User: What shape does this take?
Amino acid sequence: MGSKDTTTKRADARRSIDAIVQAAAECLGRNPDASLSEIARAAGVGRVTLYAHFSSRAEVVDAAMSRALDRGNEVLDTVDLTGDPRLALHRYIEAGWHLVDGTRALIVAAQRELSPARILELHAGPAARVEALVARGRAEGHFRTDLPISWMVNVLHSVMHSATEEIRAGRLTSDHAAHHISATVLAAFTTPGTPVPEPAP
Amino acid sequence: MGSKDTTTKRADARRSIDAIVQAAAECLGRNPDASLSEIARAAGVGRVTLYAHFSSRAEVVDAAMSRALDRGNEVLDTVDLTGDPRLALHRYIEAGWHLVDGTRALIVAAQRELSPARILELHAGPAARVEALVARGRAEGHFRTDLPISWMVNVLHSVMHSATEEIRAGRLTSDHAAHHISATVLAAFTTPGTPVPEPAP
DNA sequence: TATAACCTGAACAAGACTGTACGACTTAGC
DNA sequence: GCTAAGTCGTACAGTCTTGTTCAGGTTATA
Assistant: This one.
């Protein structure tokens, strides 16, 4: 789901569409205002070809968003989220913290071009994964229960995103990012009155 | 500094300039792409009047940014940041968490229109205030020292910003915001191995 | 009250982006 | 190899934004 016809079109058409969607995800991930000319150029196709496959800007954004989420899910599906929720959280962060970066700007573009219902629909999948992890951690007594789950999920993503900003600002190198995020979020999720776990080295 | 001439111009001119800067801060705070027509309309003046006082878009953005920071500093100057750093942090959050909201989108506009040097210059003041507080909390043994100060400051602002997102999404009411932020950041700042302090009710 | 500063709408030029149309060239696939 | 599908560059219309100019009306201030 999310991709264009993969059966009726010709091989080179499919190749073009793929290049466009990929370029769109990259360009819009960098700059939500990226023009269709820019995307077409980055994809190595003419602007007219883009319009042959996508009838409007919104369709391109939708396709790029879907692709980014598909890629993200693909990566996140390989992560083992069972066992100690604190370790699972660390694995989740290690695998996915850089995924947030590209999608963040894309979401801005999506919010301007797509209907709220579509946005919600696209976001339901990935959000559920983390929510479940946090909920399990709370049920097993490892995470605090004095704050709403939605808030905790948002904090997690927010801190991940802040790491990418720090990297861009040159105040953080990407090899330390996962550690910093884990150490921060793990502490933030700790129940008041109990000690903060030592972060993994 | 930051404001236009307040002596040479006539009274109604000063009034117009003020209305424009105020409207710009509001409009750009909502949407960093807001056009000058939009800003002029919101200020209740003609578009030409705007150009009579500001020679370019960048000048408007700069003025709006300066104004927002001035207002922020004004508010933050009333906050007592002495005493127990954990309580001081709570007071800081309570006073200023909503200030981050308006400035965040403004910063996006500023980053596109202003020179990096100017951005840095504008940001130096407010950043120093929090940095000093965090540094003091570390020196007094209340905050963790295993993460860089710049990272901790960024986490604080990031979590503040995430609160405004949660409010917009309808998952949080603004009366709970300060408490959630404080509870989260206080835990995040706690040294590993030591217990998380109970948040203020 | 006189005058200079100020405000105004209308209109213009230049540039960017979207979406569409056309004719000609290339290529996939039977 | 033939044909339809796909691609290409160019060009056009429509819209939007940024700045600028101009002539005429309003208002602060001395």
About this structure: Chain A has two domains: 1-56, 79-201. The radius of gyration of chain A is 19 Å. Residues 9-10, 12-13, 16, 45-49, 52 of chain A lie near DNA strand D (CB under 10 Å from a C1').
